[in-house]
Specification:
Number of domains of chain A: 2
Strand order of the largest sheet of chain A: 1-2
Number of helices of chain A: 14
CATH class of the largest domain in chain B: Alpha Beta
Number of helices of chain B: 19
Shape of chain A: globular
Helix content of chain B: 40-55%
Structural class of chain B: alpha/beta
Largest sheet of chain B: 10 strands, mixed
Distance between the termini of chain B: 78 Å
CATH architecture of the largest domain in chain A: Orthogonal Bundle
Number of domains of chain B: 2
CATH topology of the largest domain in chain B: D-Maltodextrin-Binding Protein, domain 2
Strand content of chain B: 5-15%
CATH class of the largest domain in chain A: Mainly Alpha
Largest sheet of chain A: 2 strands, antiparallel
CATH superfamily of the largest domain in chain B: Periplasmic binding protein-like II
CATH topology of the largest domain in chain A: MetI-like fold
Largest interface: A-B, 50 and 63 residues
Shape of chain B: globular
Oligomer: heterodimer
Radius of gyration of chain A: 24 Å
Radius of gyration of chain B: 25 Å
Amino acid sequence: MDVKQLRKAAWIIFFVTPGLMIVGVFILLPLFMSLYNSLFSWNQLLPVEFVGLENFSRLFTKYPYQQRFLNALQNNLIWFLSTMVLQNSVGLLFGYLMSRSIPGYQAFKRIFFIPVLFSIIAVGFLWGLYLKPSGLVNNFLGLVGLESLQHAWLGEERFATMAIIMVNIWRWVGFPSLVFLAAIDNVPTECLEAAHLDGVGEWKLFWKIVFPLIIPSITIITVLTVIGSLNVFEQIYTMTGLDGGPNYSTDTIGTLFYRTAFGSVDAGSPEIGIGSAIGVVIYILTFLISLISIRFSRNREVQL
Amino acid sequence: MKRFLLLMLVCTVAVSTLFAAGTTETPVAGSQAKTEIHFWTWRPEDVDFYASQIAIFEAANPDIKVVQTAHKNTEYNTILAAALAGGSGPDVFQGRAYGGLATFADSHYLEPLEQWLPELKNYSPTALLGATSPTDGKIYGSPAVSQTVFMYYNKAIYKELGLSIPKNWAQLIANFDAMKKAGYIPLANGAKDGWTLETMLGGMGPAFYGATDFFTAVVEGKKNFQDPAFIKMIEKMKSLTAYMPDMFMGVSYEDMRANFFNEVAGHLVGGSYEAAYFNAQNPDLDYDVFAIPGEDASKPGPVSVYADMNFAMNAASQKKNAAVKFLKFLSSKDFGNSMIRELKMISSVPGVDASSDPFIARVLELQKNATPFIFLVGFRYQQPTGSSLWQAAAQGVMAGTLTPAQAAKQVQDGIASYYKPFQK
């Protein structure tokens, strides 16, 4: 190796090391620690003995872990589907409309993106106030004569999860909008002009030309939605609490994990073994589903 | 090559500063052989109180310096657990009671206190139960405070409507009806925060399920939570929804307290810990408390009581002698009296003087009919705890998605999954 190469390697090490260390200490190490912890039985805060995969088998088969876990996973699925269908289609619509330069699109671009910049905790707290029985939302419904639609949005099992999802969509829709806008703006204009000259309508233009060309950004948004939906925590924590109330109707694997691993002041003591097992399952799920969705949409990518 | 070496040197320096940042030690100025002990609390709102008490302690013990740190209540357990596990925990700290205590005691983070504090034998058994690990029966905390759950009522509204303290359930409901008619919310409680439904159970439950007799029977496994008396109690609780605020499923803990201290609502099932908050929020609020009666007017209503805070010592503390001095101070009658006077808390120290505060005198009087706060005292040692099961099931009942019998089954099945006396 000559000096030049050595010097290059040194520079690479210099720039990569800090980042690598942060990833190692704060991401990889905890990941392996939770895998390690999940293989032991615990007496309160101390590991007792190596039990192999017993914590996992309890999580998947024993009452009440199985019930809580499946219930939470089902809510994560609802999060994923609602976010995919509502947030990302609205995002795509917004992105498309803005790319068509509708009047005031520059202003919309900024307005849609502002909530993305807000702290998730502040958004949860404020919307928690708005969704109270005497909050902004019910007051507005009363004002426009829709008293019959007033509800305890975060207190009723049938509305609570959807209410929180809606808040999250409100907060986050600007992000897919901008990603899709950027992707649509990248579609070559000559291609679109040629289609227009051939008399292709707006609908067909979108589905046959624009959509296939923006599949890479759809992949990114889908993967981010998968990760986001599996990691939902702060929204629940701020709006309905760590117990995923009422009666576990807003529980997600994130809150279930936290509650199990660390305990909650008002309800129970920590169970580190099972909690770590949930953590590992979250990691594996995120990893696998992301991989599948990348594969799935890769197959549909089109190159010009 | 020189430049390469220089580069590596820069790397090393950069990396070592990154890691060294947290470990630099500055010598304490003026530390003339003073023993410094660390004291943690979960009460940021009481920092001034503890600072003034620490000043009294330090004046009497000039060789000891106490450093106080307060953490947010909801994060306290996690921070404390991490600190104790890492060997850097405080010497003396506020500890939880019952299952919360067992978590730390069974992990060997707490020092057994009998040999250090012989005065513990003078405490009431109720108080000591909250400081004792069920695993080895040793006492790991000096009991500090007890809480009592009962009904707060607005005296001014009672006077205005000509009501009197109910002697039985029917009279209580009649009072609720009168308030509803007059346009007040009869009962401020909501159901959004599950734990407030456990408080509600503590307030109105014992008179119906049979107070301490039932508690003892379920703890021994002779009865269970599908007992008809327990199910009937859940039905009675459900019947209260007619008197709770509109959309009570969305009414949170903060909302219900505000309804009461703003005098929009006439009653609130709550713990003795609310009084100081009410006094601070609305000094003109004229309120008192009563035990919620059952159907029989001849029996006084029971109140649920639980130990709420212990002062504990780190088993790994290097300064146990100084820590014990401070613990003894926190267990003294003078300190207990200050807690009553300044924090309006019901001190567990034997022989404290509550005469300075009529509210606390009243609480101590109601405590003559004390019964253990059922799920916290008896069933919060293992997952799923009785508390978490009850809180979720009770929300289902109040919302109408579970029947009382289904809720009772949910609680029973959950506890029976680990509780040996229920598995017979």
